[in-house]
Amino acid sequence: MIEVPGQAIDYGVAALRHARSMDDTVVFAGNGGSASTASHFAADLAKNTTHPVQGRFRTVCLSDNIALFSAWSNDEGYENGFLEGVKTHLRPIDVFVAISGSGNSENILRAARFARDIGCTVIGLTGFDGGKLLSIASINLTVPAATIEEAEDGHLILNHAFCTAIRHLDQAGVPA
Question: In Å, what is the CA distance from 74 to each residue of 49, 66, 109, 151?
Fold first, then answer.
C-alpha cells in the first residue's frame, strides 16, 4: 500500500484537467523503470481519458524518443538530455511530469528546473524521501518506499489513480 497525501493527488488531477481544457501539453520524462512509467502514463492519459466534451490530452514522453535523447545526451552531456527535450516541447502554460525514484536524477532535475523557471506546473513523482525534486516541483507525489521497486510500483498506481479520477470527474460532468 502506498501513502501519498490525497491533497497532492487532487492538485495533480486538477492541474492535468486544466491543461487539457486549455489544450496545453503534458510532457513526461523518466530514466530506467521511470522511463517506462512515463511512457505508460503518457499513453494512458492520452487514450484512457478521452471524453466527447472534455476532449483529449496532448502528451509527449521524452523517454520514448531514444534517438533524440541519446543525440542530446551525447552532444550536450547525459545530464542535459531531458533539458534539451523540454526546451523543444514545453511552453510556459504546459505541465511537466518528472518521474524519478530517488528524486535526484540530474537530467530530470535540470529539466524540472527549466520547466519551473519558464512557468510550467511541475508534477514530481518520487520515492524514498523525495530527494532534490521536492524543492523544484510545484506538486509533489512522494512514495515513501524502502526499495526502488516499491517506488516504481507506487508511481504506476498513481498513474492509474490519476487517470481513473479524471475519467470519473469527466463522467460526472465536473468542469476542469
Answer: 36, 12, 18, 29
Closest CA relative to residue 27, chosen from 118, 99, 80: 99
C-alpha cell belonging to residue 5: 497525501
Using CA atoms, how far residue 79 sits from 59, 112, 171, in Å, is 23, 12, 41
Share of the chain above pLDDT 90, in %: 93
Is there a contact between 127 and 142 (Cβ–Cβ < 8 Å)?
Answer: yes
| Phi, psi angle pair for 88, to nearest 5° | -75, -45
Residues 9-42 as b or e (16 or more Cβ within 10 Å = b) = bebbbbbbbebbeeebbbbbbbbebbbbbbbbbb
Residue 2 scores a pLDDT above 90: no
Q: What grid cell was written down for 29?
A: 520524462
Question: What does the pLDDT look like over 8-57, one tens digit per residue?
Answer: 999 999 999 999 999 999 999 999 999 999 999 999 999 999 999 889 99
Domain ranges of the chain: 6-168
- Kindly report the CATH class assigned to 6-168: alpha beta
